[in-house]
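Cross-check.
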Amino acid sequence: MAFALLSPAFKSGHEIPAKHTSEDKGLPPLLDFRGAPPETVSLVLTVTDQSAAKGAPVAHWIVYDIPATAGGIGPSGLPPPGSSEGMNDFGKSCYTGPMPTDTEHRYQFKLYALDIALKGLRQPPLAQVEAAMKGHVLAHALLIGTYTKKRKLL
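Predicted model, tokenized:
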């Protein structure tokens, strides 16, 4: 089986349901991890807004040192036991749902299989996690969601 990141909440390329955005409950969507290579030591999940106005992706969630045997993110929305969360671009170590201010934005959920664990990091930002992963990525899987702001400000 190929390495895959899936969600029962939305199909890749489709809209993220409102309950998973900051306009609503802001809950992380259920995520299924499948087919990690046998030599995988740990997994890393990043959720980024690829349509951010500042040019660089905006990190909404960073979860690292996910056990290789983890099957995904369940209904609790909590990372699997043994995982750690990095610091997103909103200054939080948790999931921060989509909340674009203008047009439709594209959100990239990316799962990496690594041949190492990233022990020793302390609430790292995305750039630090990406630097630590360099040369250790065995495979990656991608899930794309879109979202357009629904509520109008008064």
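The mean pLDDT is 93. Residues 4-147 form a domain with the Phosphatidylethanolamine-binding Protein fold (CATH 3.90.280.10). Passed to J.P. for a second look.
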